[in-house]
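User: Thanks for the earlier help. One more: Transcription attenuation protein MtrB. Can you show the sequence and predicted structure together?

Assistant: Of course, both are below.
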Amino acid sequence: MPENWEINADYVAVKALENGVTIIGLTRGKDTRFHHSEKLDKGEIMIAQFTEHTSAIKIRGKVELLTRYGVMRNDDLA
């Protein structure tokens, strides 16, 4: 493990509410770039962590998102 490993970095849990949900990890630094993507089907859950490489997560599709700040859903958006 690197010396500067962030063991207290935030985690989020993403539960797909439909098939084909896409989760995209975005990098930190001067230029924000895509560095990883995953596809989830209905009922699948992914746990992601913000790290020294990941500063943001973009989600396409209907999900339930659990964070330390609470639970969010985007399935009721018009």
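User: Great, one quick takeaway?

Assistant: The chain has one domain: 11-73.
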